[in-house]
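Re: the pair you flagged

First of the two:
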Amino acid sequence: MAILIPSLGFARFDSRGELRLAERLKDFLEEVVVWHNLPVGPLDRHPDFIMLRVSLP
């Protein structure tokens, strides 16, 4: 199960499709951290999702 930041209960999604994708990512990905709507770079762009695969011991 993926780790979502912020978690589904606290995240604000721009569309129903983003919410459905976040639910699928959480349920079907293993060893992945997913950030949603995180400000990135000097212009504070907000990509929908950023995923990082982590190796858990």
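Second of the two:
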Amino acid sequence: MKSYRKELWFDITQRRQYLNITPQVNACLAESGIKEGLCLVNAMHISASVFINDDESGLHHDFEVWLEKLAPEKPHSQYKHNGFEDNADAHLKRQLMGREVVVAITNGQLDFGPWEQIFYGEYDGKRKKRVLVKIIGD
């Protein structure tokens, strides 16, 4: 069994942002040479998530509206965590959207259903952030 690991770095320009990282994960898979196995993709920051969904701008807007209803950014004073930081909402949003995904690898391809793509969701950005890709298999 082979193992592959790579960190992907992203310059996040907004506080909250969604990036389709499927092309970068596919490049990792090709680089790994693994044809059958599993691919783990996880956020390396507590205020970010990795999830699978459709790459549709209306849906991304809906995520933002839904998350803001459940864990509004402001007022910052509503959160006990916000003593030294102002990102308690980002931690909560991450819990809702998830930390990682695992995708089967079949015949050297990510084994997706229709329309599935891998996304990085950032909820406390405006700086460099990273994602871990770990692939195991043969």
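The chain has a mean pLDDT of 97.

-B.
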